[in-house]
């Protein structure tokens, strides 16, 4: 490629400071260094975690940055020492790496990789080791990925190589929300055939959790949300019953206990709200109920009565659905292409990178499930 080894100037949406609208800028993207890959981003989803950084986390040290972590693209060039990727390969940037060598990668018990940006820079949610500059300033790479840019540079330990025929404007969704919800059900909760499940929150992650419960063979799947408009969509992914907590004058955990003879076998919290986390735990049946935290938040403590756990319930959580990222994402792409998992049904809007602030607003006001931004051809 003519651009290999050179600085690329390209368009990106820069988050200069918390809460302010993103600004379209021309940025400089340096060539990939040892072990790195420069990727031409083709499409990206907009995820709640992008909004979280901008509107809730608001840590000034995490700015200026380029947001976006749900992308897919094509390798433009590779740095020294990269042998598994070549220009033209279709790839998915991963916010969670898999180096294959650290003690966590070597253990089958977890998907956390010690070499991930989050091991050191978790509080600012960005990687300060960046190949981006703009107006003479370094621009941080949000979650190590930064897909709201035409080009990005990522270490090969955080890139998944996918099928040449995969449609990038759909499979990009597998780099965060969908894998997170789906894996939380099939991996972390370990939903079993014939079980009764409840999913709290019907955004993309919650709907993916519903799909996971269904594919794992659950017999009843309660979809819980205060926005009843989302129930139709939940049905598409396999939900069998629908509950709006606002329609009852008693806690929804009691309603669920009555409807299921004591509580559900598995509950999944997909909101990122500590009160809902407590409710999801309380909705489980004693003895064996498992409640999984899926929604992301780190600004509040949660609480529950100890008897909830003493009575035999398990409270757990996972990041990225428990999937070992580099190994699993290419397989999930195949699962989509063979019809085992749905992706198209999550997509409610398509826009250009220039419309990124409109997409952020749609997400913020709950008007979309997933908006795909077309970044480049
Ligand atoms: Zn995300
Ligand atoms: Zn590792």
Shape: globular
| Small molecules in complex | zinc ion
Sheet/helix structural class: alpha/beta
Second rung of CATH, namely the architecture of the domain at 178-321: 3-Layer(aba) Sandwich
> pLDDT average, as an integer?
96
What is the CA–CA distance across the termini? 16 Å
Q: CATH topology of the domain at 178-321, anyone?
A: Rossmann fold
Protein name: Alcohol dehydrogenase
Family: Belongs to the zinc-containing alcohol dehydrogenase family.
EC number: 1.1.1.1
GO molecular function: alcohol dehydrogenase (NAD+) activity; S-(hydroxymethyl)glutathione dehydrogenase [NAD(P)+] activity; zinc ion binding
Short description:
With 377 residues, this protein is an alpha/beta fold. It contains 12 helices and 18 strands. Among the domains are: 178-321, 3-Layer(aba) Sandwich (Rossmann fold); 347-376, no CATH class.
Describe the 3D structure.
InterPro entries: ADH-like_C, ADH-like_N, ADH_Zn_CS, ER, GroES-like_sf, NAD(P)-bd_dom_sf. One of its GO terms (cellular component) is cytosol. Pfam families: ADH_N (PF08240), ADH_zinc_N (PF00107). The protein is of the alpha/beta class and 377 residues long. Among the domains are: 144 residues, NAD(P)-binding Rossmann-like Domain (Rossmann fold, 3-Layer(aba) Sandwich); 30 residues, no CATH class. It has twelve helices and 18 strands. The strands form three sheets. Strands 3, 5, 6, 9, 10, 17 and 18 form a seven-stranded mixed sheet that branches. The protein has a six-stranded parallel sheet with strand order 13-12-11-14-15-16, with helices on both faces. Strand 12, helix 7 and strand 13 form a beta-alpha-beta unit. It is globular. The two termini are 16 Å apart. The model has no long low-confidence stretch (mean pLDDT 96). Bound molecules: zinc ion (2 copies).
């Amino acid at each position: 490629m003519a651009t290999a080894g050179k600085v690329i100037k390209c368009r990106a949406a820069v988050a200069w400071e918390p809460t302010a609208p993103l600004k379209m800028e021309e940025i400089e993207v340096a060539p990939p260094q040892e072990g790195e890959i420069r990727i031409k981003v083709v499409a990206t989803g907009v995820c709640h975690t992008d909004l979280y950084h901008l509107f809730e986390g608001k840590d000034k040290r995490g700015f200026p940055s380029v947001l976006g972590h749900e992308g897919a693209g094509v390798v433009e060039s590779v740095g020294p020492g990269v042998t598994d990727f070549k220009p033209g390969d279709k790839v998915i940037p991963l916010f969670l790496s898999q180096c294959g060598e650290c003690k966590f990668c070597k253990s089958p018990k977890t998907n956390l990789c010690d070499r991930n940006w989050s091991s050191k820079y978790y509080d600012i949610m960005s990687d300060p080791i960046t190949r981006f500059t703009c107006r003479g300033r370094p621009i941080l790479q949000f979650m190590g990925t930064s897909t709201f840019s035409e080009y990005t540079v990522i270490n090969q330990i955080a890139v998944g190589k996918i099928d040449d025929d995969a449609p990038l404007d759909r499979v990009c969704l597998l780099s965060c929300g969908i894998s997170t919800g789906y894996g939380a059900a099939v991996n972390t909760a370990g939903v079993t055939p014939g079980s009764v499940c409840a999913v709290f929150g019907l955004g993309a992650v919650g709907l993916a959790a519903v799909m996971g419960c269904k594919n794992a063979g659950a017999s009843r799947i309660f979809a819980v949300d205060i926005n009843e408009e989302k129930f139709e969509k939940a049905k598409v992914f396999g939900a069998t019953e629908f509950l709006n907590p606002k329609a009852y004058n008693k806690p929804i955990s009691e309603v669920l206990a009555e409807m299921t003879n004591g509580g559900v076998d598995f509950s999944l919290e997909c909101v990122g709200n500590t009160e809902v986390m407590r409710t999801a735990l309380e909705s489980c049946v004693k003895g064996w109920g498992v409640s999984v935290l899926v929604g992301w938040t780190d600004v509040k403590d949660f609480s529950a009565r100890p008897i909830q756990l003493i009575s035999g319930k398990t409270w757990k959580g996972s990041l990225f659905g428990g999937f070992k990222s580099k190994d699993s994402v290419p397989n999930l792409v195949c699962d989509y292409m063979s019809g085992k998992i749905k992706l198209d049904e999550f997509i409610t809007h398509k826009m250009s990178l220039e419309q990124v602030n409109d997409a952020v607003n749609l997400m913020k006001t709950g008007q979309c499930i997933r908006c795909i931004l077309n970044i480049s051809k």
